[in-house]
């Protein structure tokens, strides 16, 4: 007995997903609206490759739980290490530095693309995902940061999220000053603290306290699941940091949450910290500029708990958070939380230039935001109509030429159409194919119709409805359900009318 040939097992790597037509179209629809806002603000597109030299990316990863520090890396034939980009900001910094003498500062750009993280995948956490960024390089004043916050708000509005989002703003110098005030000087410990506070939108205060202290188990009970080592702070230090993250709840929703009062409270609590004082001056400027432009605290809110996970931020940081309760894929009502964010990163381009190059920007998590919008019914509500199917009754060259002619005539008129390319000899299979495709109409021409210069058009949607009322094959043949015969010259016009009638009927 012959041994079966070994077959390669079809499987996806963990943390990666295939994208299907409806998802792709929904994301394209969303990105078009985002792009329109970016363009209105005077930003221009730029594109960088997905691979960079590893040393050019730097060590600013949000997680380092992999041997190659969170990135996917390969060695080139000249033994230099290349890595897939983990965000769109580090490649932009390299691009600006490499083309510094040829670009106009301030350099205002936007770009969309996939980024890659060699991290442990989990629910909603993928190794490949899309971001849509906008950045201003060469603008030192916080007016550029204020503009980023306003543009983020305008993006949310353009996507139909009025009253369902808030842009939360903080300053990394606040956190630097606070850690200095509580006696934290070790850089590794600072980074652990930042990452703990950054999880304020995912965990309750009690869990954040564990991450700031001895550590946290992610299982249902102590000792279960994976263990995350904490920052090792004492109770007094934890309390002072928790007081900052606690303002998030107090200021939630902007009612009674004055940006001015928040800044004043910061100054009172850390009045002896020059860094906190400088940060508060910048936050005050941002909130005043935003308020003058008509962006109140319901849209742009000062929130000292905002951190951002990446290490390269040096000043103001901000996040776009959805405040609406949204059903997830399982129908459970959840708070989506952050769908994008960014901040000032004055040191990133300077790594290459050896001179100060100020920069600020923000990044939208495309897949996360698209999921929220779809679940809110604000995206993908106008699906692309499936194609009209031109069936094949005869396989000779003359007949096939006719079918192709019909197909091209429909396409030229702006109608999605395809000619059946499978085994044409079993006509029933063609109609089954049309049904699976969701085709609204089928075009049919046999030898008799071709001799008379005619064509049949079958309304597959109406046919489905009527077929439920017909009890026998004889009745079906006699009724010729939802089917009409027109001249070849009337084909395009009739198809247009039938599709319009279907669209109108679907609304009622």
From TrEMBL:
E.C. designation(s): 6.1.1.21
Database matches in Pfam families: HGTP_anticodon (PF03129), tRNA-synt_His (PF13393)
Transmembrane found in the keyword field: no
Entry-linked Gene3D superfamilies: Anticodon-binding domain, Bira Bifunctional Protein, Domain 2
GO molecular function, one term: histidine-tRNA ligase activity
Subcellular location(s) of the protein: Cytoplasm
Domain Aminoacyl-transfer RNA synthetases class-II family profile: 34-387
PROSITE patterns named among the record's database cross-references: AA_TRNA_LIGASE_II
Coiled coil: none
Source species, domain of life: Bacteria
Keywords, in A-Z order: Aminoacyl-tRNA synthetase, ATP-binding, Cytoplasm, Ligase, Nucleotide-binding, Protein biosynthesis
Catalytic activity: tRNA(His) + L-histidine + ATP = L-histidyl-tRNA(His) + AMP + diphosphate + H(+)
NCBIfam families: hisS
Database matches in HAMAP family: His_tRNA_synth
PANTHER family: HISTIDINE--TRNA LIGASE, HISTIDYL-TRNA SYNTHETASE
Subunit structure: Homodimer.
Similarity comment: Belongs to the class-II aminoacyl-tRNA synthetase family.
Name recorded for this polypeptide: Histidine--tRNA ligase
Organism of derivation: Nitratireductor kimnyeongensis
